[in-house]
Amino acid sequence: MINFKQPQLMTFFCCFLILIPSLVQGECTCEPEDEDRNKSLALKYKIAAIASILVAGAIGVCFPLLGNVIEALRPDKNLFFLIKAFAAGVILSTGFIHVLPDATESLTSPCLNENPWGKFPFAGLLAMTAAIGTLMVDVFATSHYTKSHLHKTQQNHEGDEEKTEQTENHLHVHTHATHGHSHGSVSMLERADSAQLLRHRVVSQVLELGIVVHSVIIGISLGASESPKTIKPLVAALTFHQFFEGMGLGGCISQAKFKGRSVAIMSLFFSLTTPVGIAIGIVITNAYDENSPTALIVEGLLNAASSGILIYMALVDLLAADFMNPKLQSNGILQVGASVSLLLGAGLMSLLAIWA
User: Fold this and answer.
1) What are the angstrom distances between the C-alpha of 309 and each of 195, 283, 305?
2) Are residues 30 and 291 in contact, defined by beta-carbon separation less than 8 angstroms?
3) HEC readout, 288-302
4) Helix %, strand %, coil % for the chain, to 5?
5) Of 250, 142, 258, which Cα lies nearest the Cα of 198?
6) How far apart are CA 223 and CA 216, in angstroms?
7) Looking only at Cα atoms, what is the longest distance across the chain?
8) pTM (global) more than 0.85
9) Can you tell me where the transmembrane regions are (predicted)?
10) How far apart are CA 296 and CA 88, in angstroms?
11) How many helices (H) and strands (E) does the chain have?
């Protein structure tokens, strides 16, 4: 218990109260820090970052696509479920631990006006809005593609049935009816497979959109920095980050069964996003001020939207879809393995926040 009657303690307490505001204000500066700037050394780290992140992203996104070569990596195998659960944990952690806090920090910066940025949690609002928007896009896109595909399928089956009736008029009525029943069963299975395939394609495209948005921002921020002290730990962190995210996206692309050209374009686009962002940052280094109100607002809003997309995709389209899969539901060992893999991915990605 502090006795405020003692002069020394009272003096110390008063001085402490007086110093708190100045200490807090001293940390909040909108001026760029010149102490640890080293443009030539920073450029070397940036070039290393471009090469490292490019290779890591390419390996990560291509690894799950090797199912045609490595049987264990096919979407119907247990190992694929474990890899995808790990990658989903990484994406979920990216949204909650890395992107959303960065958005909150940008939009609550002392460099911005207190009204309105300091009076309302815009980062959370935009993340929520982006998640709801992703749900709507997810639903409408899947519905549109499914209806379009079913319409084409029905037209094809009607044409096939007309041809079948013309060529099988001489067959027994019972035989023809049996054939029709079998044909209908096959048609139902084809429709279910087609709907699931369309679903995977929508998921992979929306997920890539969410990843690309924050990858560009990360790249530009790193490329515009001239502090080796800041860039050095980010190189390792972003390398692992890009590798694990690539695994998650690659798993979705693998399940979508795109044609070779589409797979190559999506994989290349993901791999190049962050390195291109870094290159853009290098070009605009002299003109870019990360503490300017415009930069803070743009980065904050885009990061918040990206976090909402990533969190929705990880929870709904990746984890819920896989953990409710009949194959995993009927296999207790696989359930435990997928759960451990999920926690491991989320935990390791969370630890990267120490260096990022």
Assistant:
1) 22, 29, 6
2) yes
3) CCCCCHHHHHHHHHH
4) 85, 0, 15
5) 142
6) 10
7) 114
8) no
9) 45-67, 79-100, 120-141, 206-225, 265-288, 300-321, 333-355
10) 28
11) 13, 0
Helices 39-62, 228-256: crossing angle, 10 deg rounding? 20
The residue count of the chain comes to 356
CB of 264 within 8 A of CB of 271?
no
Which pair of structure tokens corresponds to residue 34? 């010149």
Find the angle CA(22)-CA(34)-CA(240) to the nearest 5 degrees: 100
Site of tokens 């815009």: 122
- Indicate whether 5 pLDDT > 80: no
Which residue, chain included where needed, has tokens 């009927």? 330
Outline where 94-121 has alpha helix (H). 100-107, 114-117
Cβ(258)–Cβ(201) below 8 Å = yes
Other beta carbons less than 10 A from residue 317's beta carbon: 22
Q: pLDDT per residue over 64-90, tens digit each? A: 888 777 887 788 788 888 988 998 898
Rounded to an integer, what distance in angstroms lies between the CA atom of residue 171 and that of residue 247?
A: 54
Q: With 0-12 CB in 10 A as exposed, 13-18 as middle and 19+ as buried, what is 311?
A: buried
User: Tokens 């605009």 identify what position?
Assistant: 284
